[in-house]
Automatic annotation (TrEMBL):
Its EC number is 3.1.3.5. It comes from Gallibacterium anatis 4895. It is an enzyme of class 3 (hydrolase). Keywords: Hydrolase. SUPFAM superfamilies: HAD-like. InterPro entries: HAD-like_sf, HAD-SF_hydro_IA, HAD-SF_hydro_IA_YjjG/PynA, HAD_sf, PGP-like_dom2, Pyrimidine_5'-ntase_YjjG. CDD domains: HAD_Neu5Ac-Pase_like. GO terms for molecular function: 5'-nucleotidase activity. It comes from the Bacteria. This is DUMP phosphatase. Gene3D superfamilies: HAD superfamily/HAD-like, Putative phosphatase, domain 2.
Length: 225
């Protein structure tokens, strides 16, 4: 194959990430019936924090605690405790997306695989253990650990230092988010594949390839052999 390394985003590329279910399960421990209205309110705080985190304006600790600041006040619980419970719960409810395990089985003898994620360390490790997918990946780059997040060039440079490809043309970045996965990969001089799930690209960001489902990745990379 043309690509000796494939760098995968994690959430909604390899794994489902149903944060509503995770939050609902988390708050049952506090006798709270977490509703869709509660989720909308949570996301109004959470989403801008993620943008600020990806832009390097806040660190991981700030994001994790501020997103639970209001619930911490309501429940008289430290936001850090709520965040820890949420990460543990999400590691339990996340599952490999349809076709992912089969894809990894096919790719593992054709290329080296790695995960590059803006998620948090505790959840990544626990999720890989619970799903039994750890052995498919050479390494996992987590933004929380290295101090920069996608799409920052230093994030991708760190991944390349670990992969040590002979040429950047041997590396493919696969992800579902244009603004972090694809933009970051493009800026690092790497080929990119956007997993769009039927969404239109309403940005100026241009991936090298586009696929609607993860199952389409194997025939795509085999064509590039």
């Amino acid at each position: 194959m043309k690509y000796n390394w494939i760098l995968f985003d994690a959430d909604e590329t390899l794994f489902s990430f149903d944060s509503f279910s995770g939050l609902k399960q988390l708050f049952t421990h506090y006798n709270v019936d977490f509703t869709q209205e509660d989720f909308i309110e949570y996301q109004q705080l959470n989403k801008p924090l993620w943008v600020a985190y990806q832009d390097g304006k806040i660190d991981a600790k700030t994001l994790q605690e501020q997103r639970f600041s209001e619930w911490g006040k309501r429940l008289s619980v430290k936001p850090a405790e709520l965040n820890h419970g949420f990460l543990v719960t999400m590691a339990e409810v996340c599952r490999p997306l349809e076709g992912v395990v089969e894809l990894l089985q096919q790719l593992q003898h054709r290329a080296k695989l790695a995960i590059i994620t803006n998620g948090f360390t505790a959840m990544q490790q626990l999720r890989l253990q619970k799903t039994g997918l750890s052995d498919y990946f050479e390494f996992v780059v987590v933004s929380e650990e290295i101090g920069v997040s996608k799409p920052h060039p230093d994030f991708f440079h760190h991944a390349l230092q670990l992969a040590k490809p002979r040429h950047s043309e041997e590396v493919l970045v696969v992800g579902d988010t244009l603004e972090s996965d694809i933009l970051g990969g493009n800026n690092a001089g790497l080929d990119t594949c956007w997993l769009h799930y039927g969404r239109d690209n309403q940005t100026a960001i241009s991936p090298t390839y586009q696929i609607e489902t993860i199952a389409e990745l194997l025939p795509l990379v085999e064509k590039k052999s």
